Structure formats: C-alpha cells, structure tokens
Amino acid sequence: MKKIILVGLFLIIGIFVGLTISNSQAEVRVLNDVDVFPTLLREINNADDSVHLIVFEINYYDNYPDSPSNQLIEALVGAKDRGVDVKIITDGVLFDHDENYEYLTGLGLNVKSDTDDKVTHNKLVIIDSEKVIVGSSNWSYHSLVENHESNVIITNSDIARDFENYFNGVWDDY
Taking the model in full, what pTM does it have? Predict the structure, then answer.
C-alpha cells in the first residue's frame, strides 16, 4: 500500500512538473544578420499595448529616408500614434546631445538615456509583454544591413515579464 501511495504521489508530482514546464515553454527563433530587421518591423507594426526598447545606438539618417533604422523609427511613431506605450532607453554618451535624440523627442517619442557613469549596451525590444527580441543589433545602418549580428525572438509571457521588470528598473533609474 505504501508503495502505491508513493507511486501515485510521484505520478502527481510528475504531472504537475510537466504541466508547469509545458505552460512556460517558449518559442524561440534565431535571427541572424539582416533577418532581424523585417522581424522588428513586423512586431512593432503589430504591437497593441507596448513597445519598450533598450538600445546602445539608434540612428536616423536624413539622407537615407528608406534606411532600415529610419523605417523602425517610423514604426515606433506609428505605434505611438495608435496609442501603444512606446519607451526608449539608450546610451547617453552617444546620444544625449545628438541630433538623433532631438529628432526622436521631436517626434513625440518618450526617450531616456543613461548617465555618464553608466554604459547602456543592451539591444532589447519587448513587445506587448509577450515577445522579446534580444541580441547584438543596434538600430544603425551597419548593424541592420552590413554586420554579422545574432538575435533571437522569444515568445513567452513569463520571460517577457522578467525582461519587462528589468526594463522598468532601468527606466526608473533615469
């Protein structure tokens, strides 16, 4: 009888652990080199609630209006205009007194940058607290078009919540 109870207990624990693991499974897709741009663009254009971005470098190019980073910035503005909460954190050393900062804030985007004693080197986008794109790509011509870059898109609300908590902590620091 004791053996049957133990087997039953282990079976119940196994089922619980299995359900917990299966409910927290994440869909992960690798985005190498230029693959990240169309994914970023699509996800920002489909965002319903929030787009939270931490990026070392984000560039707008006056002379190249169709550049990938310009298209991403325009997608952020479109998301903001749809009522999506758009927040950007970037590195202050590169960005604070830069024409890119002036351009983004002039578009009404909510932008913060770090202080001189901290380097923000992340490349992280959180969409609707459901999807995370994280990797090596800055929002610049070279990063989105020329460089070898590796990123992943993770679809999982638990993982997105962890990144969202991180984002909010950094946002609150500035």
Answer: 0.82
